[in-house]
Amino acid sequence: MNKRIIHTVFEQQALRVPNNIAVAEETQQVTYRELNNQANQLAHLLREKGMGREEVVSVLVPAGIQLATALLAVFKSGGVYLPMDPAFSRKRLLQMFTQTATRVLITCRALQQTAQTLIRELELDIPHLLIMEDLPYENYSAENPALINEPGDSNYIFYTSGSTGAAKAFLGCHDSLSHFIHWELKEFGVDETFKVSQLSQITFDASLRDVLLPLSCGGTLCVPLPETRSNVITLMAWLEAQRVTLVHCVPSLWRLMSKELAVQDATEVRLPELKHILMAGEPLYGKDLQLWFATGAQHVEIVNLYGTSETTLAKTFYRIKEAPADASQVMHVGQPISNTAVMILHQGQLCEPGKIGEVYIRTPFMTKGYYKDPALTASVFIQNPFVKDRIELMHKTGDMGKYLPDGNIEILGRLDEQVKVNGIRVELNEIKQAVLGMPGMQEVVVLAHKNSDHQNELVCYYIAPGITITELRTYLETELNENVIPAWFVPMTEFPLTINGKVDKRALPKPEALVLDPADYEPVQGETEQQLETIWKSILGLNNIGRKANFFKAGGTSLKAMQVISRIYQQFEVGVKLSDMFARPDIRQMAAFINSASTSAYQPIPVAVQQTYYPVTPAQKGLWIQDQFGSQPALYNMPAAFILEGKLDKAALQKAITILVIRHESLRTTFVSSGGTVQQKIHAVMEVPLSTTDLQSVKDPLEVAKKIALQAMAIPFDLQQGPLIRTQLLQLAKDRFIFLFNTHHIISDGWSEEILVKELFILYAAYSKQLANPLPPLGIQYKDYAAWLNTQLSDAALREQAQYWQQQFAGELPVLQFPTDYPRPAERTTNGDVYSFSIPATITAQLQACAQQEGASLFMALVAAVKALLNRFTGQEDMIIGAPIAGRTHKDVEPLVGLFVNMLALRTQFSSGLTFRQLLNKVKETVTNAYTHQHYPFDELVRALNLEFDNRRAPLTDVWVQLTDAPMTFDDKSDLQVTEYNPGYLTSKVDLTFKFTVHDDCLQVILEYNTDLFRRETMEQLEAHFNYVLQQLLDNDSLPLSAVTLLTSGEEAAEADDFLNSMYNLS
Q: NCBIfam families from the entry (predicted)?
């Protein structure tokens, strides 16, 4: 055994206590002998594959027995361990694979398809993909491989986000890792009786202490399921059941545990076996400890750690004995561990106690620096200025701190958390401490935010029930100078967390979407403005608006504007057009317009006369024809799948489904045809059973579930017999399920699907707690809308709309000549796939600014951008793009389930001599007029145009553009955790669809394309073309479309690579 190489210490334990449990998952466990033998066999296999000393081996497996086996095997083979997460972005994974040039990827059956997809999509040269369950272990020795490493050899790489956005990789070594593990073993008396939990994300270096601490002393590593880890109630129950004695975690997770303990019976001792909780990564506050010690958990020792990844895990510690009296006090981090010194310097000199300086860590047990980045390494691993006769490096942490009089160390925050506000340098942590000092304040995050003039403003996010913004600001006026009081205050109920339990600052809401700058806020005046503000708050989801806020700058979209128009029509009996919203984008101007406008009586949709059969809408008629005569019977199935985690009450779920079917007549509807007329029939009762399949005993339940889901998706519905909704439950584990949900498009659409899913889990939450149905009754049903719409179609207003559309499509209609990779099939297909990418934040910001300056919506700008791109490919100056819209222009239909979606065919005729802004104004006119005339059904338009039938194409347009909202959220009142799941539903209804979503500061793009027309490589090239075209157009307002170039030649392709690298910091 070489104590300085940690896996040899494990080997000694396997010899000493071979039958002890080494790793315990919730459903299986492994002894030291079994773990060591299999790790040895895998290590011998790796050496046979040519893996040698300090060669990188990538590992893509979940936490648990497989991860421990792979980690030890890589160490034993002499290699460098590189853990990966399939949730990482493709850019991050590409950087990891290419930078390390890894030749081996270890994975498991559950992630095999993911790994193979990564290799294919990223075009990786990885000769050895090892599936752990399928390896011929019996062909390899179970003996410990001969040790080929020295203590100073590299043994792991972890990637962490850099301040520039590009990931940094730091390279660990055996000696330093072993030093920390042995320090912790000795300091806390960890021995074979200890059980240590693994709660850290496996792609963080903290996971190494979780795994290797118990395995170095004969103890047990306890690994919860992800669903257990993500729910504090089940996590604490698991910690008790597993009799865990030591936990490493971040303070955010510990705070959740404290709060849970605080609401429980204080007479019952919780977590009786737990001895130590060691925390690092975030500050600990006095109020946190006050709450913990008040819960009766004083038997658990709390330890505050501090260190940097670059210096190998933690380098200082403080064993906390009691809670401080001051709730806002930041807990110090104690003193250094063995063989470590912490130096606080100011202008190159050691600071006296109480003086603030920059924190440096000096220890021989650091990492080896940043992988393949000597310049960055040299910038933070610097020579100790007090040592002149030899090389002695210390790490420049970037943290500020001070020595306390008793020799302990207090960390005060990051140097890069100093920002200039109003010309003054401000320490964010100082502002945070001031806010935390207010009685009743629970948690605080203070950030600097760039306003529209690119000037810093302070944003304070806080959790404090009952404390208003006015009260907080008034309090801060007594604590801070006026010029450093935050400009924005955002009350929160909880903070978003990263996968490692820290506050996810990037996921915090943008302040503009919640409140206005107090300096610009002006309260509404008069009854009309008050009613308008109520409408805006409801649709925009804002708390505070005022009369001067611009609707489109406050998160308004064209779709949301249409909802406002509908509400105005109902509330004020005034007809407002979309063009009016753009011309009068704030409450003050719109109220004046409403007050001066002529009114027309709001007409609610009447309830249809009861009868056996009811008319269908034109859209339903079109889908009926497609179903009866089309060659793809399952084309209009709308499948969805959700992962349910937690204790599931199946009876409550079945009851929720039954009540949902009763609530929405569309779910009890079938269709009949008589004499060429299609009609719908509403059934009084229609049973929709929840079929259940138990997959707990199969070898790979998730893979089997995926196959079942895809098979279920392809089963056609019988429109005449029904039901046109199917549900199925697949049980993967005790508290883990996949819920399949499928409807036919003739009774549903995307908006309807969101209604159904949200209402289903609202009902489930009620019934699982034996509560009554909380949903309000519906005023009308879809059949009432269908009858009303058919009456409207004969109305003069609809005739005017029909005339508009027929004028739009008069003359010869353009057919887009976008080049395809394969000949167009004789019959239109819907075989599809998707390709995702991002439009960088800089380009996104330019595009949004351009739209606002031209009085256009972001959607209009995106349509113009796509048309500019297509123009460069085809040279065409007359083109039609499809834009699916919700079609719910009447407020009465907003809560209904049914087929309302309509297609707007956006035809724009323009010259290639136009600039982008000129094109945008043409598109703005097209879109505005289209929205004004959106009541006319697309299917009616197609019939009215009497187009020559082309079985190879969709009618009128081959390309669609969509701007969608964020993914749906679910009711959180039940004990279930619900997440969307896509087992591989891939279709493409047209040649190419651009689906845009705003995420953080970037536009996320999904290209949905027909695989019988396009190769994936073409979509990859289209990403480069699109971003490059946008960059040219937005950087030069006077550049005509005709002067915009595409990246098509070999020389230009190289230029594209450089361009993309510069955007994504890949170089």
A: AA-adenyl-dom (TIGR01733)
